[in-house]
Q: What sequence folds into this?
């Protein structure tokens, strides 16, 4: 019985090898097409048996959609999202297409992600929502979009900072961050929510000499 069993196992292994190889090649091809913004190739691959690999991961844990998002390849992202790619699938460092698009201000991909099931409560490796890095990096329209989508404006990340706090602490205090601060104030962000050391947004703005922000915060009731 043992020789027969070994023979059967060997044959099964040989039969599965071509299938596994084909799947790996499709996965590689999808990632390459995503990186190259080749939407036609993506559609071709998905129609020819590659649908099961739509959320397959590379060595960094990235799906084809995340690869496309990281390079802001809108056509590729559109083809993948419309085919059902998971906009919330995270890689090895907890980036997802939705979170990355928000953090980097990739508006077109972000809008598509929001209309295809983006998890507004999902967080990155710092424990922050998409809104927090968007505010830090000065992406005014992205901040507006995420606020309108319903992202919690008072979410606190692992550093102890909200989007409003990062718009002050990690900014140059210039016009873009002033606009973002006003958007957050208008969205009822808590202007008195202090950091882990008990330092308030107003105190941080004063320490940095951001006079315009100080005026905005004071007008909103900051102490």
A:
């Amino acid at each position: 019985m043992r020789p027969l069993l070994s023979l059967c196992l060997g044959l099964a292994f040989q039969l599965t090898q071509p299938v596994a190889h084909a799947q790996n090649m499709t996965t590689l091809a999808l990632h390459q097409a995503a990186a190259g913004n080749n939407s036609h190739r993506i559609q071709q691959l998905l129609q020819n048996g590659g649908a099961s690999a739509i959320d397959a991961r590379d060595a960094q844990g990235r799906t084809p959609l995340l690869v496309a998002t990281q390079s802001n390849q809108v056509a590729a992202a559109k083809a993948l999202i419309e085919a059902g790619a998971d906009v919330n699938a995270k890689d090895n460092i907890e980036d997802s297409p939705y979170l990355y698009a928000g953090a980097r201000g990739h508006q077109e991909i972000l809008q598509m992600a929001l209309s295809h099931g983006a998890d507004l409560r999902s967080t990155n490796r710092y424990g922050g929502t998409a809104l927090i890095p968007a505010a830090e990096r000065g992406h005014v329209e992205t901040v507006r979009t995420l606020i309108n989508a319903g992202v919690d404006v008072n979410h606190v990340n692992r550093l102890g900072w909200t989007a409003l706090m990062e718009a002050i602490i990690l900014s140059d205090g210039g016009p873009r961050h002033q606009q973002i601060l006003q958007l957050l104030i208008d969205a009822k962000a808590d202007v008195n929510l202090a950091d882990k050391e008990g330092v308030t947004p107003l105190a941080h703005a004063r320490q940095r000499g951001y006079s315009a922000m100080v005026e905005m915060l004071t007008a909103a009731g900051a102490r």
In short: Residues 2-35 form the longest helix (34 residues).
